[in-house]
Automatic annotation (TrEMBL):
One of its GO terms (molecular function) is protein histidine kinase activity. PANTHER family: ETHYLENE RESPONSE SENSOR PROTEIN (PTHR41523:SF8), TWO-COMPONENT SYSTEM SENSOR PROTEIN (PTHR41523). Keywords: ATP-binding, Kinase, Nucleotide-binding, Phosphoprotein, Transferase. The lineage of its organism: Bacteria, Pseudomonadati, Spirochaetota, Spirochaetia, Spirochaetales. Coiled coil: none annotated. PROSITE patterns: PAS. It is an enzyme of class 2 (transferase). SMART domains: PAS. It comes from Alkalispirochaeta americana. This is histidine kinase. Its EC number is 2.7.13.3. One of its GO terms (biological process) is regulation of DNA-templated transcription.
Length: 503
């Protein structure tokens, strides 16, 4: 049966209940306090299931206590109590029965109102039980996650953190109420804390790309912080490798229930997830270290190859002093320039950040300067006009392209400088459609001997040029009806392509 507390300031209402109790509708265990002091223990002890009282009993103190304990309550009210009722917080487990009539017949409706508030209480308890079960399931799920899950209040204090934080030597209960900075390396705090980052950006429009990433983020949706990498040292500086984590943090109105509903819109907190990426960070560090070592090794190799080629060129230069035949000396010079053209490639790679490609425009300028100083030692010499697109070619194509440029420019310079001619040599390199490179060389006011061309000074030179063109996968030169023009096109290949194969 239902235990009902009846505390009314109207004795006639109690008499009416006692007369009607034997009836069908009033089946309760009735508790009637003799004074207000007896009512409170009945409420706090949980003895009663429902209370019936009025606004005047104990000056409303009992009603306030019932409201505090969320007891199912029926209020017996006068029509003059409307103003008081409007200022009284009434929950779904509270109903009102307005008094009226000397016979107290209005109390006939009391059983229905009692059942109504008890049903409301039962429904509320089922709802609360479901919420508690759901909360428990989510709590167990969060605790089972290997990621660190945390929530902060609007001051950056930790209001929740799951058990995964134990990998850093902390226990969750030790961190509650502490500022999140205790978890981070001191050098990290200024980089990820709102208090340090935002003042420096005041008045600055960053845009989405440059927006700061914050541990105590308050923005939501797409503007939240994602993939912020931080370093979590072990507690108290214990000798142990630190944990590296990526933080996905976003502003949340309800920071683990820490703030009251009235404050929430104005005092948002933060919830976030830290994923352990220590293995990835350490692997990246090893890869970066290995890459730096290989880059240093490749740089040293190119430097040594360049030096060795320079030594060979110097040895040839010494031998050239003992050669009296002009033709033999010319051949020696050709070989020296071919060696120098390759040496310039290794010098370029040694000075570059990329060891698998060269910028042909930069290389061609260096080669032209070298050849001009080799063949034209006097004050009168031709002008070399370079019209070069800035484009890179793979190391596989760099050597044959360098030798080809060396051969055709050397031919022009040899004829021009021997006659002390002030003509113009134009070298044009441009990128055409379908990733094809066009190399064009023309001369103006330079006399080319009869039977000679820019591409070939003799049969040996012609064979060399044709072999280099074939190695590049290019088309044989077309001489446009005059020996003063050399033109060829070859495909731009990736480093992995094999010589002679098309893209």
């Amino acid at each position: 049966m239902t235990n009902l507390l009846f505390a009314s300031t109207d004795p006639a209402e109690l008499e009416f209940l006692r007369r009607c109790m034997p009836g069908n509708h009033f089946r309760w265990n009735l508790y009637i306090p003799e004074n207000p002091g007896e009512a409170s223990p009945l409420v706090t002890s949980g003895t009663i299931h429902v209370a019936v009282t009025d606004m005047a009993y104990n000056k409303g103190a009992l009603l306030e206590e019932l409201s505090l304990w969320n007891y199912p309550t029926v209020i017996l009210a006068e029509k003059t109590d409307l103003e008081k009722l409007s200022n009284t917080p009434l929950g779904i487990t509270t109903d009102i029965l307005f008094r009226g009539g000397e016979s107290r017949e209005y109390l006939q409706a009391l059983p229905f109102l009692v059942r109504k508030v008890l049903n409301a209480q039962e429904s509320l308890e089922r709802h609360n039980s479901a919420l508690r079960n759901t909360e428990r399931r989510f709590y167990d799920l969060v605790q089972a996650l290997p990621d660190i899950v945390y929530s902060l209040d609007n001051q950056g204090r930790i209001t929740f953190i799951n058990n995964s934080i134990t990998v850093t030597g902390w226990k969750p209960e030790e961190l509650l109420g502490k500022h999140f900075s205790v978890l981070l390396d001191p050098a990290e705090v200024q980089r990820v804390s709102r208090d340090h980052v935002l003042p420096a950006l005041a008045g600055t429009t960053t845009g989405a790309e440059a927006a700061p990433k914050l541990f105590d983020e308050r923005r939501t949706g797409d503007r939240r912080t994602q993939n912020l990498e931080i370093r979590l040292p072990h507690r108290n500086g214990v000798t142990k490798e630190p944990l590296y984590g990526t933080v996905t943090a976003y502003g949340e109105i309800n920071a683990a229930g820490f703030l009251s509903p009235e404050e929430l819109p104005h005092h948002p907190g933060t919830v976030g997830i830290i994923r352990d990426v220590t293995h990835r960070v350490e692997t990246d560090q090893l890869l970066r270290q290995g890459l730096e070592e290989k880059e240093a090794l490749l740089s040293e190799i190119h430097h040594r190859v360049k030096n060795n080629l320079q030594v060979i060129s110097s040895l040839l230069n010494l031998q050239a002093g003992a050669i009296s035949s002009p033709q033999a000396l010319c051949r020696f010079t050709d070989v020296q320039n071919q060696i120098q053209s390759m040496s310039l490639i290794h010098e370029y790679l040694y000075q570059s950040d990329h060891f698998d490609q060269i910028d042909i425009s930069i290389y061609a300028r260096r080669l032209a300067d070298h050849l001009l100083s080799t063949y034209c030692t006097g004050e009168t010499h031709p002008r070399i006009l370079l019209e070069l697109d800035s484009l890179t070619i793979s190391l596989t194509q760099a050597v044959p392209a360098a030798l080809l440029l060396n051969e055709v420019i050397s031919n022009c310079l040899r004829w021009s400088c021997s006659d002390r001619n002030q003509g113009t040599i134009t070298v044009r390199v441009e990128l055409k459609k379908h990733q094809r490179i066009a190399l064009t060389l023309t001369t103006r006011d330079i006399t080319i001997p009869r039977g000679k061309t820019i591409a070939a000074r003799d049969d040996l030179g012609r064979d060399l040029v044709n072999g280099l063109i074939e190695q590049l996968g290019g088309e044989l030169p077309r001489e446009k009806g005059a020996p003063e023009v050399f033109e060829m096109v070859f495909p731009r290949r990736h480093e992995t392509a094999h010589p002679g194969s098309e893209d």
